[in-house]
Amino acid sequence: MRRKKPMGYNIQRGTVFLGYELGVGRKVGETVTVEGKQFKIARILPEKGSKEDITIAMHLRDAQEILNKPGRVNQILALGCHCAGADLPNIRKQLAQVLPDTRITEFRSIALARAEQRNLVERQQKAILAEMRRSREGVQQTLETLAGVVTPLVVLAAAVWVGLLALANVRERRTEIGLLRALGKGSLTIGWLFLGKACLIGLAGGAAGFALGSWLAAVLGSQALDVASHYFDLRYDMLVCCLAGAPLLSVLASYLPTLAALTQDPAVVLRDL
Fold this sequence. Notes:
Elements: E1 15-18, E2 31-34, E3 37-44, E4 56-58, H1 60-66, H2 88-98, H3 108-172, H4 174-182, H5 187-223, H6 236-253, H7 255-262, H8 266-271
Parallel strand pairs: 1-3
Antiparallel strand pairs: 1-4, 2-3
Helix pairs in contact: 3-6, 3-7, 5-6, 5-7
């Protein structure tokens, strides 16, 4: 548990802390005389704009000796963790066990002001956290909706594009296909040539797409959406999906063009040369 900062000062005997106004023109280490007794200046307090600027703080024993009131304490100030009026009976009960002959009073206006201030800060903090949570959930929902709509369209467009490339490749390779057929190469060999090329294209595209997508997500997410960068760390499961799914999609998109290549009659192709 974190220890709370003490309300007072830890002052050694024979030394004093001077308020800001009293410390003007003086330096730490010099001596001052208070009621005929010399004290060493241990610290000059910063300006606070209150009566502390014209106050001398010293050890209780030194103050009692100067005032000729040994063994007597005038006042002890304490600050509760939560200044609510209902806490006063509990505070009195606890202090009575330590200081049985002590009279306990409360600065009610200050206590209520502190309680209201802390309650206000707590409410504002909860409201800010709730607003941040709603904003984050809204951004997440928007991204999920966008991904749910855009991803299928991108996959479909990629499949169509790969299929058209495969079809164009088949048309350009009609002569080579006819020659391979004439040399006795079977459909399996020719099919592996086209589908293997499609698989390699898909593998390269999946790797490049994963790298580019991860980089764009990190840049746009951190700058445009103000999302922490650690949310965009590399996901190896996504990399595996890209390296496996992209070649599969490319092969499926190239299936019909490859089938068209396998059904070509080599005699017709060679006759057209």
